[in-house]
Specification:
The chain is α+β, with helices and mostly antiparallel strands. It has six helices and four strands; from the N terminus they run ααβαβαβαβα. A four-stranded antiparallel beta sheet has the order 1-2-4-3, with helices on both faces.
């Protein structure tokens, strides 16, 4: 799959098989995240790779709409000192990893963790660190249901404004 196809075909998927993700595949996905840019080249983000079911279940308590995340093979949390958290950098790393995972055949879904105290407790983060977002990864479940939120994309002509708003 070429890069453009990996971007266009990527979908958020929340239904996974129970098959593990091989270390070599996970390492390529993590490497794609590592290669994302970082504001001021500070590289403050750290990735917490969670395979342990107990930790996954605890992380499911850290978000309002994430009860399903414990069914994934891996959860990758984006952590940084609270004073240095840059959500744009999280997005850059996450998108790189989601596109790389899609090219490998691995399904992903981004997750917002609204309860910092529960995310911190689940992963053992220091008090001055936060983990506001995570990715779930897993092999897609065949015959999985379509999302009830499935929609058509806004046409490019409607999405893009050239030069000035008119």
């Amino acid at each position: 799959m070429d890069t453009y196809e990996a971007i266009l075909s990527k979908r958020d998927i929340r239904h996974y098989t129970d098959q593990e993700i091989e270390d070599e595949v996970l390492d390529r996905i993590l490497q794609a995240g590592r290669m994302a840019g970082s504001a001021k080249n500070e590289e403050v983000l750290r990735l917490i790779v969670v395979r342990d079911q107990t930790v996954q279940d605890a992380l499911a308590e850290a978000g309002d709409f994430v009860s399903w995340i414990g069914s994934s093979a891996v959860i990758i949390g984006f952590a940084a000192p609270s004073s240095s958290m840059r959500l744009f950098d999280v997005g850059r790393q996450a998108q790189n990893m989601m596109v790389a995972a899609n090219a490998e055949g691995v399904a992903t879904c981004p997750v917002t963790l609204q309860h910092a105290d529960k995310a911190r407790s689940a992963t053992g983060l220091p008090d001055d660190w936060e983990m506001p977002m995570a990715l779930t990864l897993g092999w897609p479940l065949p015959g999985r249901p379509d999302s009830p939120l499935k929609r058509k994309r806004v046409p490019l002509a409607e999405l893009v404004v050239h030069d000035r708003w008119s």
